[in-house]
Design brief:
The complex is a heterotrimer.
Chain A (H helix, E strand, L loop, with lengths): L28 E6 L2 E7 L5 H11 L10 E3 L4 E6 L2 E7 L3 H14 L6 E4 L4 E7 L3 H6 L16 E6 L2 E9 L3 E7 L3 H12 L4 E3 L4
Parallel strand pairs in A: 1-11
Antiparallel strand pairs in A: 1-7, 2-5, 2-6, 3-4, 4-5, 7-10, 8-9, 9-10
Helix pairs in contact in A: 1-2
Chain B lengths: L14 E10 L2 E7 L3 H7 L6 E2 L6 E2 L12 E4 L6 E5 L9 E5 L13 H4 L8 H5 L7 H11 L13 E14 L3 H12 L4 E4 L9 H4 L2 E2 L2 E2 H13 L4 E4 L2 E7 L3 E7 L11 E15 L3 E3 L12 E3 H9 L8 E6 L3 H11 L3 E7 L7 H8 L3 E4 L1 E8 L3 E9 L6 E9 L2 E5 L2 E3 L2 H5 L4 E4 L4 E4 L6 E3 L9 H18 L37 E3 L4 E2 H9 L5 H8 L12 H12 L3 H4 L13 H5 L16 H6 L3 E5 L2 E6 L7 H14 L2 E4 L4 E6 L3 H8 L12 E7 L5 E11 L2 E6 L4 H15 L6 E4 L4 E7 L3 H6 L2 E2 L13 E6 L2 E6 L8 E7 L3 H12 L5 E2 L2 H10 L47 E8 L8 E3 L10 E11 L4 E9 L8 E6 L4 E8 L14
Parallel strand pairs in B: 1-7, 8-9, 8-15, 9-12, 15-28, 17-24, 18-19, 18-24, 19-20, 33-44
Antiparallel strand pairs in B: 1-2, 3-4, 5-6, 5-7, 10-11, 13-14, 14-15, 16-25, 21-22, 22-23, 26-27, 29-30, 31-32, 33-39, 34-37, 34-38, 35-36, 36-37, 39-43, 40-41, 41-42, 42-43, 45-48, 45-50, 46-47, 47-48, 49-50
Chain C lengths: L2 E4 L3 E4 L4 E5 L13 H9 L7 E7 L7 E7 L5 E6 L10
Antiparallel strand pairs in C: 1-2, 3-4, 4-5, 5-6
The chains are: A alpha+beta, B alpha+beta, C mainly beta.
């Protein structure tokens, strides 16, 4: 086990240090980084029922097969990225174990063509929540985020400002997980703080 | 401060208890809350507000809306100054400062007005004809002409305001907040649809704000206010006032600009405007119409105004636009306005109506009031200069196309015009909809639509209030209905009393009354009837030619008031119908949009993402100078105190060749390739063979486009039986990933291969130099680094500095080298661990510049640097990497006659006398003056520490056959000529012994 | 800005996609048997019709999947979205 204290946030260059967790009574959006999440990119044929069952038995929930859908909960879940691609999340530090278990299950199920890639550090997750979170996102995101169109449990690969993101609505507050490439995270954080300025932004404690 | 002498005592939509002070052209005035700058100026009796564009004639306020051709003003000063705003749209705020544009030194004494006296010398096309010769003099003319033909001054300081953008989806977008638009929004909103109603004015109501009409028992304005309250109470309805929809694009994508606080003077640091990017499932355009004027001699005198505008100044702003009025037109509206003027205490001299039989309720009412109706008459000319003093009226002949009888003069200081209405079809036309000409109404109307859009009210040629309300409600209901929303209990039609209206009689031009008179068609551009006639005589008789030759409709007002006349006159000259002449194209934006709102927040640090590697913080603290590689910031070099770039790069290069150097290589593109057909796939996308690469081995690969040209290169490792790990160039990462997916999904779906981009998962550093192995051995655990156990082009897993790592023995410098990759969040820790143990080895951080010098010394290509999309492997002398035994992308192109030419440009080395710029042209035979035959160009050039001299790489025609020859690099702009000897591109360690360290 | 119906993600703005040009241009099975002119035809020549064009699009910022559409190059109306590998429709149907 590698010493996790050696890990660094992509936001380190922003020197947010003193501002994290500071009370911001006027704030109607809450912005934070959820760093300690293991992520595995999984590719497999969704038509292979045996394989899908094998994955479900490892994960404890089925891989979502419908467009823009997720399964599991905020800590452990799967986001559908495409017709044969998912992002599986686990609490940070458990990704190696899960990676191994998924690989073993795939082999046992006779899956000859499965791809697993550890992408825990390829992206980080910025969380945005609060009554004006949707307004902040609509400043840079062309998706229709109205509750009639995008709800808790929905996810979508899309663009936010000038960054590619994976957007996941995690709560009705509304609350969102914004998965963004490591090297774009600082840019996007600055963008989100700027976009949220008129509503008041509270910078959350980093998990 | 002067009294507001033209202000009415009661009525209107202004708040007389809130006085606002403002300055116009340096003079102080006062107006009321609810005023526009134009209404406040009229209230204060200011007549001349501008000078015209070409002749610098005095001009007054002509309209009450966005169609204003005259009253263009520059608002504010300094950073927030904005030119060419229409005074009729500028809402008054306390402290407003505005000035006329296009006059110097002042609006009342304008030096350039001599243009008016010599106007015979300034016909249409004057600038095209005169100042194009001699060509080289244009720059001198231009400065003077621009001063005379200026259109305000662009601010030169950074804008202190904030501009934003916002995406918004809706079921129904209604554009226009007049009676039709309000009705549409109410109907759609009541059905539960998500509705946006956008209106350019400060408050809803549209024409109702100005025309005093009534709905049910209430005033039209009260009805609009009631509707606004109802709309505001609906959860899914958003009303956007002060918002102009200016562009209608594909698939119901509509751009709108909201003026958030311009009406408050937009204090610095506040949100000034917001760009709305609307995606609507259905659009209802209720954009209204614009009144047309009448054309006659000197029809531009201050005091000449559109009839609807005069009505608006009275009813909405409580301003009497004149004291003694004549009305002139071809339809009932002038009669309705005559009544409003009379009610406001204006003395109405006469209503001049070109229709021989002026009938209908409004006409009768005017006659009842004892106002003279001059039916079958026309205004031949206006009198006065800086203000209107009277008009000359003549009887028309029976056909109505010429004069009969004597001139009669009427005294007046206000002349109100109505030549009918032009529906505002701009957005409809932008949406791709067809326009049909209506002979009855003498205007173009929306025809067949191409997108999910309907048009209601005046924009659709329905000008009467009752029709607008009905058609708007039907359009809103239908739009929502198409999406499955049903209105619950649709209310019955609103009762509106509507009189019988007389028909309109179009009159586009009448003969001149006297010689040399100026009948303006486009007031802003100073385009006259004679200009159009001249253009047509000179062959510019197609409408698009006419527009550009005369500049009709090309000002900030885009000819909103005059375009139909220009078209009617052109049709008349050509002896064709108006639809045969056709309209010019309607293009966005509908009204001018500031650059600031287009940029939004994408300015300063947010202009473009800056991508930083995990080690960036260390680089910054260590004083790195950064190089932009795409969006990445990469260390360019690490200067020590007092050290310049050349010295730093030289030191870094020496370290790599004699000790050990460390480079942040995290930006390399990285792709996980997994699946049973992975090797087959690599065989198809790389020029070389991948059949025999063992697990744990790496291989360099070259990728071509299907045209045979080098596209990217990199090292790919085999990590497991069915698992390969590809690296790409930093700049090519996204492109190569997309390229591979394209082939895999579209051409070879049968291949069982999955690609996953892992560029950002891995932080990578590279160490190179004779001491690289000893350095690494201090940190690596569980990996045998000995040369035999871990030879060149091998990959191993293990721990480095206690972190799970992947180690590849590869080199881009020609020295013994390793790349160490760890999960990105550990990248900085890894880097710092190397720095700690590196102290004993004088470990030197190097940047991209040293890397380039080192690879150039070895003759290694940098794709995109030494190649430019026109270079084959053969050109590079890399035939050794091109398999003869298999097909791959681009292979067939290498056998084309052109790619097999022997005189193609070859990649060679150069030994220039001094360093030359990259891109410099190379000639075999130097001449003192061009032309010279160019035989190639320099692709890379550096000062080499190892060779102690400048070296270069170049592409030279037949270069490999010219090795040993001397060529010339003429640097004309630098005033020097450099000789260079052609050599092999490998300058250093040609046998490659150092790699094995 | 077009609104494109991604078969895997639903309707999205054009900004999320990349256009791959005309569809149904299969790579020749045996490139060596083609003349230079035939190879150039495959490489460079496209129909560029005024009217209905079958073209390839990739949902670059979404699911990264390629698919085909039929688009009217005059009106920009998208008439059909179909999977990669599905044949084109006969014209006029």
């Amino acid at each position: 086990m590698v010493d996790p204290s050696l890990r660094q946030s992509p936001l380190a260059t922003l020197h947010l240090g003193g501002r994290e967790g500071q009370p911001a009574p006027e704030a109607s959006v809450h912005l934070a980084e959820r760093r300690s999440v293991g992520k595995i990119n999984l590719r497999a044929d969704p038509g292979d029922g045996v394989l899908m069952n094998a994955f479900e038995s490892v994960l404890g929930y089925p891989l979502p097969l419908d467009p823009n859908r997720t399964s599991g909960d905020g800590k452990r879940g799967a986001l559908r990225l495409g017709p044969d691609e998912w992002l599986v999340t686990v609490p940070g530090g458990q990704e190696n174990a899960l990676f191994g278990a998924l690989g073993t299950a795939a082999t046992a199920a006779g899956g000859k063509h499965v791809a697993l890639s550890d992408v825990s550090d390829a992206r980080t997750i910025l969380t945005l929540a609060g009554p004006r979170a949707r307004d902040v996102l609509q400043k840079g995101c062309g998706l229709d985020l109205h509750p009639r169109a995008f709800q808790t449990g929905h996810c979508a690969g899309t663009l936010l400002a000038r960054a590619a993101i994976l957007l996941h609505q995690t709560g009705d507050a509304p609350a969102y997980d914004i998965h963004v490439a490591w090297s774009f995270a600082a840019y996007l954080w600055v963008w989100l703080e700027d976009a949220g300025a008129e509503y008041g932004v509270a910078v959350g404690e980093v998990e | 401060m002067k009294r507001q002498r033209n202000r009415l005592d009661v009525g209107a939509r202004i708040d007389r208890s809130r006085r606002l002070r403002f300055h116009f052209n340096g003079k102080p005035y006062e107006g009321f809350a609810g005023d526009t700058l134009a209404s406040a100026l009229l209230a204060n009796g200011v007549r001349v507000v501008a000078r015209s564009f070409k002749y610098h004639r005095p001009r007054g306020i002509y309209s009450a809306g966005m169609e204003e051709p005259n009253a263009l003003v520059q608002l504010g000063g300094g950073a927030s100054s904005e030119p060419n705003l229409r005074a009729t749209q500028v809402e008054l705020f306390d402290g407003l400062e505005a000035a006329s544009v296009n006059c110097w030194p002042s609006v009342n004494f304008d030096i350039w007005a001599f243009n008016d006296r010599v106007s015979g010398l300034l016909p249409a096309g004057f600038y095209y004809k005169t100042f194009m010769w001699p060509k080289s003099f244009w720059h001198s003319y231009e400065k003077v002409i621009r001063k005379g033909a200026g259109l305000g001054t662009a601010p030169e300081m950074p804008d202190h305001n904030i501009y934003e953008k916002r995406h918004q989806h809706c079921d129904v977008l209604v554009v226009g907040g007049g009676p039709a638009g309000i009705s549409a929004a109410l109907a759609a909103g009541r059905s539960g649809a998500r509705v946006i109603l956008a209106d350019e004015q400060a408050e809803l109501g549209g024409a109702l704000l100005g025309n005093g009409e009534r709905i049910e028992a209430a005033s039209g304005v009260d009805w609009a206010m009631g509707a606004r309250a109802e709309l505001d109470g609906m959860d899914e309805v958003r009303v956007l006032s002060r918002t102009t929809a200016f562009g209608y694009y594909d698939h119901n994508y509509v751009l709108m600009v909201e003026r958030v606080n311009d009406h408050l003077g937009a204090p610095p640091g506040t949100l000034r405007q917001r760009l709305w990017k609307i995606r609507a499932r259905q659009v209802v355009l209720a954009t209204g119409s614009i009144e047309r004027p009448m054309v006659f001699a000197d029809n531009d005198r201050p005091g000449v105004m559109l009839a609807g505008a005069a009505r608006t100044y009275i009813n909405r702003f409580g301003v009497k636009p004149g004291n003694r009025a004549v009305l002139y037109g071809n339809n009932d509206h002038i009669h309705q306005v005559a009544l409003d003027l009379a009610d406001a205490g204006v003395r109405v001299e006469a209503v001049v109506d070109v229709r021989a039989k002026a009938v209908g309720e409004a006409v009768a009412a005017v006659r009842e009031r004892g106002i003279e109706v001059m039916a079958g008459h026309a205004v031949g000319g206006a009198l006065g200069k800086k203000r209107l003093r009277g008009v000359e009226v003549l009887a028309l002949n029976e056909k109505g196309d010429g004069f009969a009888g004597d001139i009669r003069r009427l005294r007046c200081d206000l002349l109100c015009l109505s030549g009918g209405w032009t529906p505002t079809v701009h957005l409809f036309s932008q949406s791709g909809g067809k326009l049909d000409y209506s002979e009855n109404q003498a205007c173009f109307l929306p025809g067949e639509a191409r997108q999910a859009v309907s048009v209601a009210g005046a924009a659709n040629g329905v000008f009467a209030l009752k029709g607008c309300l009905g058609e708007g409600a039907a359009a809103g209901r239908s739009a929502a209905g198409k999406l499955g929303f049903r209105e619950v209990g649709a209310p019955e039609a609103l009762p509106v009393a509507q009189g019988e209206a007389g028909a309109l009689m179009p009159v586009w031009r009448l003969p001149p009354v006297s010689k040399g008179e100026r009948r303006f068609v486009d007031l802003h551009g100073d385009v006259t009837v004679s200009d159009i006639e001249l253009a047509a005589r000179e062959g510019y008789s197609a409408n698009e030619h006419l527009k550009r030759y005369t500049s009709t409709g090309m000002g900030p007002d885009q000819g909103r008031t005059g375009n139909m006349h220009a078209l009617g006159i052109l049709a008349d000259i050509r002896g064709e119908s108006i639809p045969a002449v056709g309209t010019t194209t309607f293009r966005p934006p509908y009204t001018p949009v500031p650059y600031g709102v287009m940029a939004g927040r994408d300015v300063g640090v947010l202009a473009d993402p800056v991508r930083m590697t995990a080690m960036h913080g260390w680089h910054e603290r260590s004083g790195a100078v950064f190089d932009d590689v795409g969006q990445w910031k990469r260390p360019w070099y690490f200067p020590r105190t007092g050290e310049g770039m050349a010295a730093a790069v030289r030191r870094e290069c020496i370290a790599a060749r004699s000790g050990v150097a460390i480079l942040d290589a995290s930006t390399l593109g990285k792709i996980d390739i997994q699946g049973p057909d992975a090797a087959k796939f690599l065989n198809r996308v790389y020029t070389n063979s991948w059949n025999k690469l063992a697990v744990g081995r790496c291989r360099y690969g070259l990728m071509l486009g299907e045209d045979g040209m080098v596209m990217d290169d990199g090292v790919t490792s085999r990590l497991a039986e069915n698992h390969y790990f590809m690296t790409t160039t930093s700049g090519g990462a996204a492109r190569v990933m997309a390229w591979l997916e394209d082939w895999l999904q579209c051409e070879w779906p049968e291949l069982k291969v999955y690609l996953t981009s892992v560029t950002e998962q891995w932080a990578t550093l590279s160490i190179s130099g004779p001491n690289a192995r000893r350095l690494l051995s201090e940190l690596a655990e569980g990996v045998d680094l000995e040369a035999d156990a871990f030879p060149h082009m091998v990959v191993r897993s293990g721990k480095v500095a206690g972190i799970e790592a992947r180690i590849s023995r590869v080199s881009f410098t020609g020295e013994l080298g390793y790349e160490v990759s760890v999960a990105t969040s550990y990248g900085l820790a890894l880097w710092q661990a190397f720095q700690r143990v590196g102290e004993n080895y004088d470990l030197t951080p190097i940047g991209t510049e040293a890397l380039h010098v080192l690879r150039a010394e070895k003759g290694y290509i940098a794709v995109g640097h030494d190649t430019d999309g026109s270079v084959t492997p053969g050109d590079l002398g890399m035939d050794w990497i091109v398999s003869k035994k298999k097909d791959f992308i681009g292979r067939r192109s290498l056998a084309r006659a052109d790619t097999m030419r022997t005189d193609r440009k070859h990649f060679v080395g150069l030994l220039p006398e001094t360093r030359v710029p990259e891109g410099a042209q190379i000639v075999a035979e130097y001449k003192r003056r061009p032309p010279m035959k160019m035989i190639g160009h320099v692709t890379s050039c550096y000062d080499s520490a190892a060779l102690g001299r400048p070296i270069a790489l170049a592409l030279i025609a037949g270069g490999r056959e010219r090795i040993g020859e001397t060529v010339t690099i003429p640097l004309t702009l630098q005033g020097r000529v450099v000789k260079a000897e052609i050599t092999s591109p490998v300058f250093y360690d040609p046998k490659g012994e150092r790699l094995n360290g | 800005m077009l609104r494109i119906e991604c078969p895997h993600c639903g309707a999205r703005d054009e900004a999320e996609f990349s256009c791959g040009g005309e569809a149904h241009i299969a790579r020749p099975k045996e490139p060596d048997k083609l003349s230079d002119a035939e190879w150039a035809d495959y490489l460079y020549m496209r129909t560029n019709p005024k009217g209905i064009l079958a073209e390839r699009w990739c949902h670059t910022f979404g699911c990264r999947r390629w698919f085909n559409i039929e688009r009217d190059t005059v009106s920009h109306e998208i008439l059909r979205v179909y999977a990669m590998g599905e044949p084109r429709r006969e014209s006029g149907t």
